[in-house]
Amino acid sequence: MKQELTNQKQEIKSLLESEKFQEEIAKAMPKFCDPVRFLRIATTAFNQQPKLYGCTKMSLFQCMLDLSSVGLEPDGRHAYLIPFKDQCTLQIGYKGLLAMLRRNGVSMDAKLVHENDNFLVEEDDGQGNTKVSHSVAYGKPRGEMICVYTRATWVESGTNFLSYEFMTREEIDYIRSLSQAKNGTAWQNHYGEMARKTVIKRHAKRLPLSSEVEHVINAEHDNPDFSKPLKKDEVLFETKPAEAEEVE
Fold first, then answer.
1. Rounded Cα distance, 19 and 16, in Å
2. How far apart are the C-alpha atoms of 209 and 106, rounded to whole Å?
3. Fewer CB under 10 Å: which end of the chain, C or N?
4. pLDDT tens-digit profile of 173-185?
5. Which residues of 95-106 are buried (b: 16+ CB within 10 A; e: fewer)?
6. pLDDT one-digit tens code per residue, 53-69
7. 151: closest CA among 218, 204, 73, 100?
8. How far apart are CA 51 and CA 48, in angstroms?
9. Residue 240: what are its φ and ψ, rounded to 5°?
10. How does pLDDT run across 97-143, given as a tens digit for each residue?
11. Is 118 helix (H, G, I), strand (E, B) or coil?
12. What distances in angstroms separate CA 21 from CA 14, 39, 157, one per listed residue?
């Protein structure tokens, strides 16, 4: 088994350095991106998380292809490559989600609301108008987080649009409970960022986005279902899956 993993590691290193793989990444990514830089950052991610070398090349390629198609890099800030058994999974941070939306002409921010904040929502008046007032009295304890809201603006056909999304802490915690990573370090150590990400993803479903961005948002999740087979490139990915231990 050790020799098999060693061979798999060498195969993946060769793949990352291959001209063919670079060409595939370059074809998928927007013109403003650099495939050489992308693969250099991906190699760094592999070195920092060696268990990725135990993942199938097919799953690794799919994750990196999805990332490159929306102009993100697995830099540990905007996006992450996470090993789960013998599969590479893709997780995008809330900053990565906001970057994808911004490139689609949608400006969004996500705010945490605490119990001692001044927060008022005037519900939709029937014409799509919702007013939100949120202020923070800095210098005194804000108390527990009670909800998260996102605000998105974009222009379509010369018309300015404004949209909000709200989720209570109870709703966010319910989404967390469905995740296989619910007790992982991301939720435990970065709850605020994960809460923002949860609301951003729900809001994004109602926004005018490209098919590539919609695909990546739908494919990226914290509760992966590996029962659905991935598409296989006959040239690059004729390989036997290696085994790797389960991680969060």
1. 8
2. 8
3. N
4. 999 998 877 888 8
5. bbbbbbbebbeb
6. 888 888 988 899 899 98
7. 204
8. 9
9. -85, 135
10. 999 999 899 999 999 999 999 999 988 766 667 889 999 988 899 99
11. strand
12. 10, 9, 39
Closest by CA to 187, choosing from 106, 57, 118, 91, is 91
Structure confidence at residue 225 as a pLDDT band (50, 70, 90): very low
Q: What is the average pLDDT score of the chain?
A: 83
Task: Give φ, ψ of 190 to 5 degrees.
Answer: -135, 55
List Cα–Cα distances, 177 to 4, 5, 45, 173, in angstroms: 36, 33, 28, 6
Three-class HEC string of 163-210: EEEEEEHHHHHHHHHCCCCCCCHHHHHCHHHHHHHHHHHHHHCCCCCC
Residue whose pair of structure tokens reads 């605000």 in the numeric block: 151
